[in-house]
Amino acid sequence: MSHHSDLIATDIEAYLAQHERKELLRFITCGSVDDGKSTLIGRLLYDSKMIYEDTLKSIEKASVTHGTTGGGFDPALLTDGLRAEREQGITIDVAYRYFSTAKRKFIIADTPGHVQYTRNMATGASTADLAVILIDARHGVLEQTKRHSFIVSLLGIKHILVAINKMDLCGFAQERFEEIRREYLDFASRIDVPDLHFLPIAALHGDNVVDPSPNMSWYSGPTLMSFLESVYIGSDRNLEDFRFPVQIVNRPHLDFRGFCGTVASGIVRKGDEVMVLPSRKTSHVKSIVTMDGELDEAYAPLSVTLTLEDEVDCSRGDMIIRPGNAPKLESKFDAMVVWMAETPMVPGKQYLFKQTSAVTTGRIQQLKYQVDVNTLHRQDTPTLKLNEIGR
Length: 391
What we know:
Blueprint: H1 2-21, E1 23-31, H2 37-47, H3 53-66, H4 83-88, E2 95-100, E3 104-110, H5 118-125, E4 130-136, H6 143-154, E5 159-165, H7 174-188, E6 195-200, H8 224-230, E7 243-253, E8 256-262, E9 267-269, E10 273-277, E11 281-290, E12 293-295, E13 297-299, E14 303-308, E15 319-321, E16 337-338, E17 350-355, E18 358-363, E19 370-371, E20 378-379, E21 389-390
Parallel strand pairs: 1-3, 1-4, 4-5, 5-6
Antiparallel strand pairs: 2-3, 7-8, 7-15, 8-14, 9-13, 10-11, 10-15, 11-12, 11-14, 16-21, 17-18, 19-20, 19-21
């Protein structure tokens, strides 16, 4: 009996170790309202057998009262969890879902499509490696499609998959797919999109989501799941410039003083010389501590605690870097801004500026222009309103 238990424990430990070694992909679904973002995620989880039986029964029951499929199974309800979302049939908050396959681990952020919730979309996109931008095949590229695409490019997301959804409502016509593809390519040529792909789908019925569609034999590319499992993101990470914003100083007793945070970029190893900004005091890394024990090195996006050889002045909001690779320290800078406040932005007014865990005061000296998300033309304007973008 003991031997059998040991074997089970060994199998579990081996499985967990294998799971930990899988690469993590963070991606978002975005696009205009009612383009089928929540339905796509629900179908992806359902067809991948990633839904517990009790959850499935609950969704089947909720589909009768809150569904949009005439009483049939509504996969969108897997992510639309707020009462207001189910009653209105829309996404309001960012909904996160976690799942894994044999090849990869995934964190999905289902973001809202309504214009008034654009700030929620930007929040969900801020940590993503890839964006799945949905387009309703009946309506084509809309203003909110362009707005979300522009925000994705501003946030530095390098990989975009344009999923042209509801192809079943257009007779699965290749001509319609190509028409929308050309329209989006014309817009994308004016923003920074290093890696762009297109996929025809019918999310409600599962066409090209996990399994190839029997209705679109003219499409020979990967399904959504195949693409997500195979897209290469390893080269996206900055492993050169070590940046470690300190979130909290951990002092459980007199003999331990550690600096907790998430490695934003680069690699740090035990023994490395480091510098604390803004004091510019230097020391060496004594240990890299985690809940699972010490590490020899840490890299983005690991959350760790660093201990240093010397007692240096370092607190929440400071940044630990390498001495020979310091960022520029400036009191003035240019920035593209997505305005997320109900109150319009006022040049000359004092605001709080937050960078990681550091907060300081400052002023917006000048608003140079606002960007029209439809044309990407620059317009003179005295202020930025909610969800507007400018420099």
